[in-house]
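Lab notebook: predicted structure, single chain.

Context: the supervisor wants predicted structures on file for every construct in the current expression panel, including those that have not yet been purified. This is the next one on the list. No modifications to the sequence; it matches the entry in the shared construct table.
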Amino acid sequence: MLTSLQKAPQDDRSSEQVQVTVLRAELAALIDRLTGGADGIHPTAVPRLSLARVAHAPQHPVHAIHDPAFCVLAQGSKRVLLADEVYIYDSGQYLVVAQNLPVSGQVIDASPEAPYLGLKLSFDVKDIAAAALEFSYAEAGPARASPRGIYTGELSTAVLDPVLRLVKLLASPEDVPALAPLIVREILYRLLKSPEGWRLAQMAMVDSQSQRITQAISVLARRFQEPLRVEALAEEVHMSVSSLHHHFKAVTAMSPLQFQKQLRLQEARRIMISEHVDAATAGHRVGYESQSQFNREYSRFFGSPPVRDVKRLRELQLGRVSS
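Prediction complete. Output recorded below exactly as produced.
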């Protein structure tokens, strides 16, 4: 009897792994079919849900401001960089980004035979707050230290099952308005209930330090072109300067000034590519008074000077269009 009791937990884990493998394979097949075998990001009929397919691992990382979201890979793996921190996840984990964060992402495992297949479900912070309050996860949050605004978790059947049902719902668009919100709410519940769920709840809790950092990030995102006065920012979010620095770095892995710099550089890059303006104009528009400083910081962040970097990106775009 003792032997069978000792084996039971191992049997449960094995059964869970088998179920996750089966569900993940079904999800991969669905995403591959729904994307029509075409690489890229594909919006869907479910609000804030997008599907991704990549048949060749890109040589360069993609820089972006990542919105609060839940990301799952059915196949392949990806590297995400926040400041100097590296997060690598594959089909065995999920990624949660709980703040608007400047990150770079790179698919590191993809091939025509086994393409990278994933999905992203973006969240509104208000939805997170409402769910945390409804499911009583608000009570344990404020006593915790400010958590990093990005983390990975182990993919389980409890999380994967509603994800699969949400993607299956795309086959009946007429049911999306009624059923999608219920499934999204269930996914939020499962994430909040997970071992790392407190991290997600913290970001939306009223009067928590993390929630104040959410406000600070919002202020910086709206006014990143303006000179940064940390004292004024701290006062606006009702924190001391030292507390703002401490908790801001805890959540974002960088200081407010470093955060603003990344916002400026990413926006300048976007402007040069989409609006075909020169580096001097782009740098000035995002708040740089010194062209040499802009060129220096751009080169350090993206790995090459603005002119060379933008030329490479445009050539990549043309290559995708021609293929």
